[in-house]
Design brief:
It is built from 15 helices and 20 strands. By secondary structure, the chain is an alpha+beta fold.
C-alpha cells in the first residue's frame, strides 16, 4: 500500500541541437529497376528495353539519365555496368538499392542533468515548487552542453523511436537515419524534472524498496541523491507525541493500527477498522497517506460535494462558514503537485455564481512573526492563493497533526508519524469524521490554538502571509 507520495525535482535543461544525419532513401521505380537489372549482370540497352517494355527511345533516355548521375557506365564489350557510386547502393545481390543522403536538421530537446536521459521535446513550464530539490554533480551543470552532445549521439536511435524528432526524419518506415555529426548544442533554459516517488508498505508492515524511474536510463544515481536528501531531512521518532495528540483529540481508534512497540503499522487491522466503521453509524473513515492524494481526496469529496451542492441551491448567506486547513510541521508535507491542485479546488469551489459558499483559510507553519524566510517560501509555493494563506505559529498538537475542519459539517485529521527505524519518510495516517460531537470537539481545539498565544504579544495567528 502507498503510504506517501513525494515529488523530487531533478535539474534538467532544454537544448537547441543542430546536427547532420545520414539517411537511406529509396529510388524512383525506373531508376531502381534498371540498376537492379545491371546489378544482377551487365546487359545491353536493348535488353533493358525488352525487360521493362520500353521503346528504344524511352530506354535510351532512362539510361542517359543514369549515366549523367554517374550510376551507369559501359564495359569494353559495350554493356551497361554499375559504377563505384551505384555499387554502394546495394548490400547484397537482389537487394533493393538504398541511397545515402547527408541532411542537416535541428531540434529542441530536454535532458536531465543526472543521467543525461532525453526526456522529450515538449517545452515544460514546470516550477521549482511542491517538491524536494535534488543535487547533481557540478560538472554536469557547468559542462552540460558537452555531455549532451555525446549523449545525443548515443541515444539517437532511441530518440527517434520515441518520436522526439521531426516526422520528416522518420516518415519512411524503411528509412533508418543515423547521426553523422553534431554541429552545435546550445542551452536554452533550466527546469525541474518532476519525479513522483511512491513510498509503500507491505502487509506485514515492512517498508518496500523504491521503484526505478521509467524516464531515466539509470536510476541508481538519482536514488542515491534521494537517500541523501531523506537523511538530511530525517527527524527523531514522534510516536509518544502523536499518542498525546490522539488523547487530546479523543481518538482511541487510530493508535490501534500500530503494533505494540509503535514501530510499524498493521495494514490488516486498518482494513478491518475501515470495514467496521463503514458498517457503523459513527460516520468515520480511517485512511493512510496524505489528505491531498487522489484516493484520499475522493474521501474528502464524499463529504464536501454534497455540502457545496446544498449551498449552491440555498438562498441563505453561508459565506461566513469557516473552513480551516492547518498544515503540520513536517518536511514532507506539501511536497507534491497534488497539494496545489487540492488547495485550488478548495478555494475555487468556495464561490458559485457570485455567491460565497464558505470561507477557506490555509494555515501554514512558521516559527514566529519574524520568520520571513519560511513565509516567503510558502508564498512562492501557493502563489495563486496568497489571499487565503495565513501564518500559524508552529506547535498545534505538537506540530505533528494536520486538520481540515469544515465548520459544522466534517473534519479530517492526519497524524504525521516519524518512525525512522521502519520508514524512510513520515507516515500519514488519520480519519475523516462527520460526527457532530467529533467535529465540534476538534473545532474547539482549532479555535483555541488559532486564537491563543505562546506568550505576551506573541499570538499564534501571525497574520496573512501576504503581509510578511
Amino acid at each position: 500500500m502507498v503510504y506517501h507520495e513525494i515529488d523530487f525535482l531533478l535539474p534538467a535543461q532544454r537544448f537547441n541541437i543542430n546536427f547532420s544525419y545520414v539517411t537511406q532513401k529509396g529510388l524512383p521505380f525506373v531508376r531502381e529497376f534498371v540498376l537492379r537489372l545491371v546489378h544482377l549482370a551487365p546487359i545491353s540497352t536493348a535488353q533493358v528495353a525488352t525487360f521493362l517494355g520500353f521503346s528504344h527511345i524511352e530506354a535510351q533516355e532512362a539510361i542517359r539519365d543514369l549515366v549523367e548521375r554517374d550510376e551507369l557506365g559501359l564495359s569494353d564489350s559495350g554493356q551497361l555496368t554499375l559504377t563505384e557510386k551505384s555499387g554502394g547502393y546495394f548490400t547484397d545481390l537482389g537487394e533493393v538499392p538504398r541511397l545515402s543522403l547527408l541532411q542537416d536538421s535541428a531540434t529542441c530537446l530536454t535532458f536531465d542533468l543526472a543521467t543525461f536521459s532525453c526526456i522529450g521535446n515538449e517545452n515544460s513550464q514546470e516550477k521549482w515548487k511542491a517538491g524536494i530539490s535534488l543535487k547533481v554533480r557540478d560538472d554536469h551543470t557547468s559542462r552540460s552542453e558537452v555531455h549532451v552532445e555525446k549523449h545525443f549521439q548515443r541515444q539517437f536511435d532511441e530518440i527517434i523511436r520515441k518520436g522526439f524528432l521531426s516526422r520528416a526524419l522518420t516518415q519512411d518506415e524503411k528509412d533508418s537515419p543515423t547521426v553523422y555529426t553534431v554541429n552545435s548544442v546550445n542551452k536554452i533554459k533550466q527546469m525541474p524534472l518532476r519525479l513522483s516517488v511512491q513510498f509503500k508498505v507491505a502487509w506485514d508492515g515492512r517498508s518496500v524498496e523504491r521503484e526505478d524511474f521509467e524516464k531515466l536510463k539509470n536510476s541508481d544515481y538519482v536514488h542515491e541523491q534521494i537517500s541523501l536528501e531523506l537523511d538530511r531531512l530525517a527527524r527523531p521518532g514522534n510516536f509518544i507525541e502523536i499518542a498525546k495528540a490522539m488523547r487530546d483529540i479523543g481518538d482511541a481508534e487510530t493508535i490501534k493500527v500500530f503494533d505494540s512497540s509503535g514501530r510499524s503499522i498493521n495494514l490488516q487491522f486498518l482494513e478491518d477498522l475501515a470495514k467496521l466503521e463503514s458498517n457503523s453509524d459513527r460516520k468515520r473513515i480511517p485512511f493512510i497517506g496524505p489528505i491531498y492524494s487522489p484516493q484520499n481526496w475522493e474521501l474528502v469529496q464524499r463529504h464536501l460535494a454534497p455540502v457545496i451542492k446544498e449551498r449552491r441551491e440555498s438562498k441563505a448567506d453561508l459565506g461566513g462558514t469557516r473552513v480551516f486547513w492547518i498544515a503540520p510541521s513536517d518536511p514532507y508535507w506539501g511536497k507534491s503537485n497534488n497539494v496545489l491542485a487540492r488547495v485550488s479546488e478548495l478555494v475555487g469551489t468556495s464561490n458559485a455564481k457570485g455567491k460565497r459558499l464558505y470561507s477557506p483559510t490555509i494555515f501554514l507553519p512558521v516559527s514566529g512573526q519574524d520568520d520571513k524566510k519560511v513565509a516567503r517560501r510558502w508564498k512562492s509555493e501557493f502563489d495563486p492563493h496568497i489571499e487565503r494563506l495565513r501564518a500559524l505559529r508552529e506547535g498545534f498538537l505538537g506540530g505533528n497533526v494536520e486538520v481540515l475542519h469544515f465548520e459544522g459539517k466534517f473534519v479530517v485529521v492526519v497524524y504525521h508519524l516519524v518512525l525512522p527505524d521502519s520508514y524512510p519518510v513520515s507516515l500519514p495516517v488519520g480519519f475523516i469524521s462527520a460526527d457532530e460531537d467529533v467535529v465540534s470537539r476538534i473545532g474547539r481545539l482549532v479555535d483555541s490554538y488559532v486564537a491563543g498565544s505562546s506568550s505576551f504579544n506573541q499570538p499564534n495567528d501571525c497574520g496573512p502571509l501576504g503581509q510578511f
